[in-house]
Amino acid sequence: MEKILIFILFLGPLVFFHELGHYLFARLFGVRVEVFSLGFGPKIFRFKKGDTEYAVSLIPLGGYVKMFGDDPLNKDAIPEEDRPFSFTHKNKWARFWIVLGGPLANFIMAYVIFFSLLMIGEKIPEIKIGYVTPESKFYDYGFRSGDVIKNVNGKAVLNPSDIVLEGSGVLQTVGVERLGALKVVELSMTGEAFFEEFTTYPPFLRRPVLVDSKGNFFAASFSPMSANLTESLEEMNGITGEKTIYLFPKVEGKESIEKDAWQSKYTHQFKVFINKPVDLIKGFNAAGYRTIDLVVKSRNMNSPADKAGIKGSDVIVSLEGKSVYSFEQLRRNLQLTKTKSVKIGVLRQEKLMEFTVTPDIKNRNGKDVKLIGVYSAGEFLGINFVNTSSRGLVDSFLMAFTRTWDSTLKTLDGFKKLITGNVSLKSIGGPLAIGKVASDSFNTSLTYFFQLMALISINLGIINLFPIPVLDGGHIMFIFLEIINRGPVSRRKMEIAQQLGLSLLLMLMVGAIFNDVSRFF
Q1: Which tens digits make up the pLDDT trace of 297-319?
Q2: Which of 126, 170, 392, 452 is at a distance of 20 to 30 A from 210, taking alpha carbons?
Q3: pLDDT for 205-237, tens place per residue?
C-alpha cells in the first residue's frame, strides 16, 4: 500500500503539470475546456466550474484535457456560433502552442524542481570512487578504491555534476579524502571526460566480513578493540606494510554481525603483508578465510550452477583452476573464458570440490553475457550522505538551467541508442519499473525522489514530442504539414495515421509492461 501511495505521489504531479500546460494555453487562446482529468477510466471524484468538469479518475497512469472541437474529423459538424471556442477552428499557431503546452510544462517543472533543490540545499551521497582495478586508468592517475572527491582545481564540489562545471576547461587537480587524510591527484583532462570515467567505478565496496571453511562468519579489523565495519576491504587493502588482522565472531545471524562485532572480543589474529591490490585478500586465503561475497547465497532452479551441483552456502574459490578473490572478479573473468564449459571450484563443509558448468548466454543491453545463475551473499558499505547548503538565487537559477539542459541531452542520447539498437528494448520500463525506482528513491532521500521526478518529467516531455499521431508531437507534425501544404491533411490520411500511431503506442506499452513482468516476476 505504501508503494502505491508513493507511486501516486510521484506520478500525480507529472500528469497534473503536463495537462495544466495544455489547459492554460487552451484558456489563453479562448478554447473551451470540457474536462480536466487526472487519471483515466471511471471518475471517482468530480465537480464542475464554468464550462469545465474537473475530475480524478480511477486509473492513475495519466490524464487528459478534453477540449471542445478537438476532433478534426468532425470539424464541419460544429455550429457556426460555437466555432470561436473550438480547438479545431483556431489558427495554426494557436493550436501549436496549445499542443506544445503539455511538453513545455514538463520541462518547466523539471527546471523548477532543480532550482528548488539548489535553493534549499540537497541531501546527496558523497562523491565516492568505487573499486579501482590496478589495470585501470584511474589507478594510473593515482586514485584508489574508496577515495572521496572533495575538490576540483581547488574548488569544493558537492555533486558529480559539479565536476563537469568546475572542469569545463582543463581539470588539473582533484582533491580526495583517503583514510581520513586529504590527497591531491594531478592530471590533465576535461571535466566531462573525467566524469565519464568516474561513472565506471560505482561505489560498491565490500564490508570486511569473512567466512571460514566451516561456514562461520567473522568481521575483520586492523584494531584489536573492535571491528570497523564502516571501512571497506578495498580501503583496508590501500594501507601498505605488515598488518595484524583481528577477527570478531558473529553470534546470531548474519544480519546482526555489525552489532555482534562491535560488542564481542576478537577470537583470531594473523599477519598479512600488503603491497599490491589483492595482497590483503591473499593473506585472508592463506589463513583459511574467504570474503563473504564469494559465498553462494542462492541459485536459480535449473540454472547452469544448479544443474552442475553447486549449492547455497558453497564458497567459490576458483575459476578454470585460477583463484578468484571477489564475486565481481568471478563475473568479469567468466566473460573472458573461451570454452563452452568452465570448471568452478568451491569449498563445501571443509572439502574442496570442482564442478563443470556450462553458462547460459543472455543478451543484456545489446551484449552477450555469460550467466551461471548464482547470487552472492556479499555485503556492501552503505552510502554516506551529506547535506549541502543553498547555492544562492543567482547560482541556483543558472545551475538549474544547466541541469535541465544536460538531462535533456542525456535523455535524447538514450533514445538515440534505443532507436539505433545500441541499447536493448528490454531496458524499457513500464509502470512497475517506475513505481519501484520511485519507492526506492523516496526511501533513500527526498532529494533523490525529486531529482528522479525531474528526470521523468523531461522524459515525458520528450516522448510526447515524438512525431507519432495521438501524441502531442503527432499533432504538431500535422500542423506543420498543414502549413507546408497550405491546407489540412485529408480525412483518410489522418485516419490511417491515427490508427498507425495508436497501434505503435499500444505495442510500446505492451512491451514495457511485458518487460516489467519479466523483470519482477
Answers
A1: 999 999 999 999 999 999 999 99
A2: 126
A3: 888 999 998 888 888 888 888 777 778 888 888
Closest CA to 293 of 266, 254, 351: 254
Q: Are 66 and 34 in contact (CB under 8 A)?
A: yes
Q: How distant, in Å, are the alpha carbons of 84, 143, 390, 391, 403 from that of 396?
A: 42, 31, 8, 6, 10
Contact indicator for 361, 368 with CB cutoff of 8 Å: yes
Which residue is it, cell 504538431? 476
Euclidean distance between the first and the last CA atom of the chain, given in angstroms as a whole number? 18
Q: Let me know how long the chain is.
A: 521
Backbone torsions φ then ψ of 149, nearest 5 degrees: -75, 125
Q: How many C-alpha atoms does 64 have within 13 Å on its Cβ side?
A: 14
Angle CA 113–119–121, to nearest 5? 95
- Sign of the CA dihedral running 426, 429, 432, 435: positive
CB count within 10 Å of CB 14 equals 23
Closest CA to 100 of 454, 400, 477, 453: 477
Q: From the CA atom positions of the chain, what is the Rg in Å?
A: 29
Domains and their CATH numbers in the chain: 2-118+455-520 (no CATH), 137-198 (no CATH), 207-379 (2.30.42.10)
